[in-house]
Design goal:
About 75% of the residues lie in helices and about 0% in strands. Helix 1 packs across helix 3, helix 2 packs parallel to helix 8 and helix 4 packs antiparallel against helix 5. The chain has a single domain, classed as Glycerol uptake facilitator protein (Up-down Bundle), CATH 1.20.1080.10.
């Protein structure tokens, strides 16, 4: 239960500070600032809860670990439930903060394409973007966590990787690479965000599975 609680807290922090920064200060922070808010959330949580749960705080990360046999199916299910619950807790806190403000709660950092994309990205392109960004993110995680010598810097590397995929993806889809992070704001925001959220659940899982399979394939060849 400690692992699940840590995943709940970590995901809540990621969603609150990542989506919160985008909604509250996005105009002044810009793409780079929002990207760093997401990245620094990962860095902070990695060193806070990483020794207990591994700081997945993302169902796509947990899927890759399941495929790589680094966690059991039981833990995978428990992690995903905790992550989704944490995402709703984070977006719930953000909603309560914005409810009485002049910003309002019409936008909560949900992902989207077409009219919800800053560049009016098509659905197919959004799927491709999310698969590619998730692949890069997960592949980096697998690489940096496979060597104990890199453990001291793993949190920083993973956080910076999340930031740089956001730099590319924010104006395209808002950058998901995390089904839990996408589901919570979409459900609360409703409308088109909720209609489109399936892309930001399916595509990250596909990108994660591809990253795990490619990583295993390349490592197997290297060992031989």
């Amino acid at each position: 239960m400690k692992k699940y609680l840590c995943e709940f807290i970590g995901t809540a922090v990621l969603v609150l500070f990542g989506c919160g920064s985008a909604v509250i200060a996005g105009g002044s922070l810009g793409v780079f600032g929002i990207a760093m808010a997401f990245g620094l959330s990962i860095v902070a949580m990695a060193y806070a809860i990483g020794n207990i749960s591994g700081c997945h705080i993302n169902p796509a990360v947990s899927l890759a670990m399941l495929i790589n046999k680094k966690m059991s199916l039981k833990d995978f299910i428990g992690y995903v439930i905790a992550q989704v619950a944490g995402a709703f807790a984070g977006i719930g806190i953000l909603y309560s903060i914005l409810y009485s403000s002049e910003i309002g709660t019409d936008a909560l950092g949900a992902n989207g394409f077409e009219s919800l994309s800053a560049v009016n990205l098509s659905m197919i392109s959004a799927i491709v973007v999310e698969i590619v960004l998730t692949f890069v993110f997960i592949y980096t995680i697998l690489g940096v966590t496979s060597d104990e010598k890199k453990s001291s810097v793993a949190g920083i590397v993973i956080g910076l990787t999340l930031a740089f995929v956001h730099i590319l993806g924010i104006n395209l889809t808002g950058t998901s690479v995390n089904p839990a992070r996408s589901l919570a704001p979409a459900v609360i925001q409703g409308g088109k965000a909720l209609e489109q959220v399936w892309v930001f659940i399916v595509a990250p899982f596909v990108g994660s599975a591809l990253a795990a399979l490619v990583y295993n394939l390349l490592n197997a060849k290297e060992e031989k």
